[in-house]
Amino acid sequence: MTPDPQQPLAPAVAAAEEAGWAVLRLDLDGVRSKAELMRRCGEALALPEWFGGNWDALADCLIDLSWLPGAPGRLLAVTSWGGYAQARPGDWATFEDVLEQAVDFWRDSTEGALTVLLAAPEPRPRPKPGPPKPGPHQR
């Protein structure tokens, strides 16, 4: 799994939804600690109550997807991950390993694949410039 911060998210999400896949979004904006990462995963992914907030529990949740509605596939879109990866490189490597192991587990499953997309958030449209505002001496 190679992080590509320039990879557009919208086309992949649209294709997954069109195919009937479950789409999970995990925005890591502002996350700078393992505890925050686990809390964000639990909330954003609506992990089951038995999620223990540690690496093993996260791996278990991503391998046992019985807590999700059935679908031909699942897309986990992770955005704004760069700050966490930079602040906690060791934990980021562990997080990537957990994601890769889950993807590998579901790769040949007849119950639907799990695909993880590490992407930058979609750029917000810039407001179109309007006419210049008059200065204090222009009226």
* Element order: H for helix, E for strand: HEHHEHHE
Secondary-structure content class:
alpha/beta
**Contiguous uncertain segments of 5+ residues:** 1-5
Task: State the helicity in percent bands.
Answer: 25-40%
Morphology:
globular
Radius of gyration: 19 Å
Arithmetic mean pLDDT: 85
Distance between the termini: 58 Å
Quote the beta fraction.
5-15%
Side by side, the strands of the main sheet go: 1-2-3
Number of strands: 3
Q: Note the total helix count.
A: 5
Give a short account of the largest sheet: 3 strands, parallel
Write a concise synopsis of the structure shown:
The chain has 139 residues and is α/β, with parallel strands linked by helices.
What this model shows, in words?
This protein is α/β, with parallel strands linked by helices and 139 residues long. It has helices at residues 10-18, 34-44, 55-63, 82-87, 89-106; strands spanning 22-27, 73-79, 113-119. Strands 1-2-3 form a three-stranded parallel sheet, sandwiched between helices. Mean pLDDT is 85; it is low at 1-5.
Q: Strands, helices and their partners?
A:
Elements: H1 10-18, E1 22-27, H2 34-44, H3 55-63, E2 73-79, H4 82-87, H5 89-106, E3 113-119
Parallel strand pairs: 1-2, 2-3
Helix pairs in contact: 3-5
Q: Which labels suit this protein?
A:
5 helices; three-stranded parallel beta sheet; globular; alpha/beta; 139 residues
